[in-house]
Amino acid sequence: MTPVGWYHAGMPIIQAAHNLRKPHTEEPCPYGIRISLKTNDPFRKLLGPDWHRVHWYRTADDRDEALLEMARRHEYSRPLDAPTLEFTKVENLAASRGLS
Questions:
Q1: Do residues 73 and 13 make contact, with C-beta atoms less than 8 angstroms apart?
Q2: CA dihedral sign of residues 62, 68, 71, 77
Q3: Residue 13 placed within a domain
Q4: Structural domain for 40, as ranges
Q5: pLDDT digits (tens, 9 = 90+) for 2-48
Q6: Number of structural domains found in the chain
């Protein structure tokens, strides 16, 4: 079995769909959030300067809601903590316009 998060032919393989917060669907998810590290983040030495992850959502509203949650200052943050992640909205234009 392939672990969750691995890819086969460009498509994610979901090993345990019953553990997902929302049911898996084959609907297109053209709206994304690209997460990358700021230039001063020490994790860049471990992960490399080009490290990034993209999370995909079915609608722009779902994406925007998730972005607000990701980018907010969490209650467990220390007073002087400064976020070192950069969040960028991305869109798969072909999928969002029904062309793929």
A1: no
A2: negative
A3: no
A4: 25-96
A5: 344 444 444 556 666 666 666 666 778 899 999 999 998 999 999 99
A6: 1
